[in-house]
Amino acid sequence: MTTAPGQLPVAEQAPRHPSDPDPARATKTRAVFALGLIAALTGLFIGGIVPATVALQLSRQARREAYASGGFLTGARWLRRGEQLAWTGLLLAAFALVALAVIAVVRLAQAPFGYDYPANVD
Q: Among residues 80, 91, 66, which one has the least CA distance to residue 32?
């Protein structure tokens, strides 16, 4: 059976065994996406570090569970988006920390060094 001239034939799928579970979206993928979104939104305020690390740890667990399920757990796209948002949150937090460090160094360089005594003190 072919779908159109010039295309590869479509492989017939074997009938499913009645005791096979139905494919379902993994619940951890929603959590990873939500935590990644929170991390990306609060990354500039340095609050995105915690949800981003939790999202990345959950994504590792979700990938392991999806691999072990043999294809019955779905949601790889949501998992990938959540990971990308978590990394974005971490990068924004790192940028904010570097910017704060630069501002602190510039302010420290502009401050007078040592104690400034009055003119009548030897």
A: 80
